[in-house]
Amino acid sequence: MFPADNFIKSIIDKRKKEDLFRSLRFSDGLIDFCSNDYLGFARSQKLKDILSAFPVIDDHHKIGSTGSRLLNGNYPFYEQLENKIATYHNATNGLIFNSGYDANTGLLSSLPNENDTVLYDELIHASVHDGIRLSKATKYKFSHNNATLLEDLLTKSKGNIYVVVESVYSMDGDFAPLEEIASLCENYYANLIVDEAHATGIFGERGRGRVSELNMEDKVFARIHTFGKTMGCCGAIILGSELLRDYLINFARPFIYTTALPFPNLAAIHCAYDLLEKSDDEISKLKSLIHLFKNKINQKNIPLINSDSPIQCIIIEGNKESKEASRKLQSFGFDVRAILSPTVPKGKERLRICIHSFNTEKEINDLCNAIADLF
Predict the structure, then answer these.
(1) How crowded is residue 76: how many other Cβ atoms within 10 Å of its Cβ?
(2) pTM across the whole model
């Protein structure tokens, strides 16, 4: 054994004892009520057809990017795609990162400094936490969607102030009160950063996001749109000013010190946006299925966390209890996963159910009946 093995084993054993142990597994043909593939792009034959007709590899493009964008990994199509996406979301400029995690850590680790203040919703994504920690800025969290507490913290903040929220929260599926928060940021000269990961492709005209839906583009300092959820691809983009883009190119370490995305990945993103422009019917179908699910669950008097997004959650307190509920639903053929503490606060463990445009009404009805059998 290596010297570290005893330490590793003790930590793993402790995690298993506390019902916190994670392991990789396959879905094994279960009906998908788990993934973030809300419009089915990741499995879409339409997207595959668009991509197959796209010149993915030709004499001007390599299979791999071969280096970071500051070395030899940049090429014209990269910047053309950034301009295309920025225009789609009514933004001035954009910079692509390899993942949403990289985008958030890159932005929040490089922009605030030790003289600045970052205020963030208590349910913000882990990538934002990690970025803030690296920034060394003063940080304060406010209780979920609590604008009153946010204002109190704004009065105590120093330096450049950054307020970070998600437009649609990944674990609860609810909306941030963006208009109220933006008004506070304007009053206190704070910079609003909005993670649109779970709004991209779903909300706003043709899936442009909640910021665009509320006509707030000029109220938001930076937006993060990811491609690994509704868009069915991978990567992310930070939208903002040309000045912000230049700053990130120079100071965001996850951008500077990583190999750029290869052309086939960028081609997939490009084609996904082409498909999104024509997906109004799929978006409408998804919202209809969300409405159906909520109505069926409410008829069975099972409490849901308030959400109008594809993310629907039922609290089942306790890691062991929520994992057992998930296993029972999977035994009925539904891929529903438990979300455990500390990913969510202790006592807020849950079943996290994701609705998709490719789910059928029968699948929704059958799932609701199976959930009712748990109670």
Answers:
(1) 8
(2) 0.95
